[in-house]
C-alpha cells in the first residue's frame, strides 16, 4: 500500500469551523463517490482541534506557532501502489472524478500553503 498525505490550509475567507464542515459534509461524499474510479482504497480526514495539550506538546518541542505551521487538517488516501496513483486519470471516468474533486477543493483549500506527498507506512504499533 502507498499513501497520499495532504496537509491542508483553509482559504483565508473561511474559519476553521467552516473549512472543516465543508470538507466533512461536502467534499468527503465526493471522494467517496470517486473512490472506485480513482482506485482509492481508504480515505481518512484528520481535523485539527484547538487543544491545550496540543499547544503544550508543540511548546515542549520548541515548535514555532503561527502562520504556515498550524494546518487545518490532514487527508490520507491509500492506494494499492504508486502505479495505482499514477493511473488515477488513465480513464475518462477517473479524469472526470479528478476534475470534480479539484474544482471542489478550490472552494475550501488554500493550494499555495498546502502540501501533499506520497509515502509508505512503517507501522510500529498496531
UniProtKB/TrEMBL annotation:
SUPFAM superfamilies assigned: Dimeric alpha+beta barrel
GO MF, one annotated term: oxidoreductase activity
InterPro entries: Dimeric_a/b-barrel, EthD_dom
Domain EthD: 12-111
Superkingdom of the source species: Bacteria
Protein name: EthD domain-containing protein
Species the sequence originates in: Qipengyuania soli
